[in-house]
């Protein structure tokens, strides 16, 4: 079974899982790992100008030998002149059209003029340079500035989304659902990778035991239960296959989803003592270095 697609508010379809090509890899690594992802069955490739990986993604697309229609390519705007930015991305990727083009963060919007920036994005879609347009890391307040004058609504809002920040994004999720804006979720494995040992571990482990699945798969199943698209990544083929196998799992029960939500609302585990005091230690070290420097002048 495959993950299938999700229908966007503009009528286009979006593959429900994506392979992200963030800035952790460079040059040859990106091409190599992306080729591995495509071979494993990923067709939705997520990149961004700010990652500096677009050329490597373009090389991997070319070397895959697949026709353009077999792949779904997302990239993101990183500031400056919007028409120039998308043309640069297309040139880097070796493409004539993106499937999805996002404003990477509200901070990249010139002069914080959301209405003007979105008009430029609407023109990108009208000119056929991107089939769908959307945003990333936008709050309700940011979205409202676009929606009030938009001719074309954002199709997607890509956000960091996991059980521990669900309460923080409750209003955003509701607003997006009201306007048919699909949520794409990145960093959804944070309860395992960044906050192990927290309250979410218990309901996740219980669901994993029932399903015969891994905790990783349960967290991704939780994202699916929220109706969001999964954006994930790995350099290891076994992890890529583990993520795709979520499509073959039975769904989480309503009680399991509710238990994970409730545990997430408790927040992640508190930092260790060292990390709790590290900002103060860091400040003290900086002051000491500055004192030694000026004393030596």
UniProtKB/TrEMBL annotation:
Superkingdom, natural source: Eukaryota
Binding site for substrate: 104
Residues annotated as transmembrane: 275-294
Gene Ontology terms for molecular function: oxidoreductase activity, acting on NAD(P)H as acceptor; oxidoreductase activity, acting on the CH-OH group of donors, NAD or NADP as acceptor
Site annotation Lowers pKa of active site Tyr: residues: 76
Pfam families with a match to the protein in the record: Aldo_ket_red
Domain NADP-dependent oxidoreductase: 16-190, 206-263
Residues at the active site: 51 (proton donor)
SUPFAM superfamilies: NAD(P)-linked oxidoreductase (SSF51430)
Alphabetically ordered keywords of this record: Membrane, NADP, Oxidoreductase, Transmembrane, Transmembrane helix
Family, as annotated: Belongs to the aldo/keto reductase family.
PANTHER family, per database record: 2,5-DIKETO-D-GLUCONIC ACID REDUCTASE, NADP-DEPENDENT OXIDOREDUCTASE DOMAIN-CONTAINING PROTEIN
Protein name: NADP-dependent oxidoreductase domain-containing protein
Organism: Pleurotus ostreatus (strain PC15)
